[in-house]
Design goal:
Elements (H helix, E strand, L loop, with lengths): L31 E4 L6 H31 L6 H18 L2 H10 L3 E3 H34 L4 H4 L2 H27 L8 E2 L6 H7 L5 H34 L4 H35 L2 H25 L2 H11 L12
Parallel strand pairs: 1-3
Antiparallel strand pairs: 1-2
Helix pairs in contact: 1-2, 1-3, 1-10, 1-11, 2-4, 2-10, 4-6, 4-8, 4-9, 6-8, 8-9, 9-10
Length: 338
């Protein structure tokens, strides 16, 4: 009797002695993956656990403070801080898709993630990464309107438009992430997979598939160009117009006041795009999965952790709102934004 070709879908699990066979209704026989993480040395596991736990807690508490400060202080009920609160929420979710699972694996000394868990993690990671990009673009547009059209700012950036911009960002990100995930579900994986990363990433999943991935690659690259490059061009155009408007201001104090409202956002945009671009350039240059995983920590963990510090340390409104929220300062009058 000839050997059934489906035999290639039989895998040997890393725990237990029995075999897992392909479910007739599924395109893959893989029931679980292994996330290799950063190091297999036992003495380094405790250090990595403490390092990432600290960064995760700082990220959650820092961004949560921004959300609470904006929501509790009526002086911050403006479009700029509305978008900032949304960005802080997305950053919490973005980090929470990857770090808790990695911490759990270190704690339980297990590197296993189920097939369904991997697809779910990939979906939410793609979703919140896209939302980060869209919200940063919307915030650039907000600064463009504030500086280039200051007299009509509150008319243009009305609550309805602000809500609509956030809603469109969510819908676009959800649909894009859903499309990418559904296409990965159609792929077959014929061997036991060790993912050289600390989370399931779209690019890694497509590379490890044993079926044709041409369409997946085309959709992934087209999505990256359209949903990544498009917003980036929008941000560059916004700041080109902002710089042109600032140059037209006669007084040095006026120029400083106008530009100071953009410094925090410009810092966050630079940090996000530079670290993200650095990850893919370094991985393409070195072809080292370990180097790519280490570099990706910058935009998946470090950037969301630093965002609250950037906005609170360089923004007087946020600092005073945090002081009022914590009860360390008396209530003051409203602060007029330049």
């Amino acid at each position: 009797m000839p050997i059934d070709v489906k035999f290639c879908h039989v895998i040997f699990p890393f725990t237990g002695s029995h075999l897992h066979h392909m479910d007739p209704g599924n395109n893959t026989g893989i029931s679980e993956f292994l996330l290799k993480g950063f190091s297999e040395e036992p003495e380094q596991q405790l250090l990595i656990f403490g390092f990432f736990l600290s960064m995760y807690l700082i990220t959650v508490f820092g961004n949560l403070l921004i959300i609470l400060a904006v929501s509790s202080d009526s002086h911050l009920h403006t479009p700029m801080y509305f978008f900032l609160a949304n960005l802080s929420f997305v950053d919490i979710c973005f980090t929470s898709t990857t770090v808790p699972k990695m911490l759990l694996n270190i704690q339980t000394q297990s590197k296993v993630i189920t097939y369904a868990g991997c697809i779910t993690q990939m979906y939410f990671f793609t979703l919140f990464a896209g939302l980060d990009i869209f919200l940063l673009t919307v915030m650039a547009y907000d600064r463009f309107v504030a500086i280039c059209c200051p007299l009509n700012y509150m008319v243009i950036m009305n609550p309805r438009l602000c809500g609509l911009l956030v809603l469109v960002s969510w819908i676009t990100s959800v649909l894009h992430s859903l499309l990418e995930s559904l296409m990965v579900l159609q792929l077959s994986f014929c061997t036991v997979l060790e993912i050289p990363h600390f989370f399931c990433e779209l690019n890694q999943m497509i590379q490890f598939a044993c079926s044709d991935t041409f369409l997946n690659n085309m959709v992934m690259y087209f999505g990256a160009m359209l949903l990544g490059g498009g917003p980036f061009i929008g941000i560059l155009y916004s700041y080109y117009k902002i710089v042109s408007s600032i140059r037209g201001i006669s007084s040095a104090q006026g120029k400083y006041k106008a530009f100071s409202t953009c410094v925090s956002h410009l810092s966050v945009v630079s940090l996000f795009y530079c670290t993200g671009l650095g990850v893919y350039l370094s991985s393409a240059a070195t072809q080292s999965s370990h180097s790519s995983a280490t570099a990706s920590v910058m935009y998946t963990v470090v950037t969301p952790m630093l965002n609250p510090f950037i906005y609170s340390l360089r923004n007087r409104d946020i600092k005073e709102a945090l002081m009022r929220f914590s009860g360390m300062a008396a209530t003051k009058g409203p602060i007029v934004l330049g």
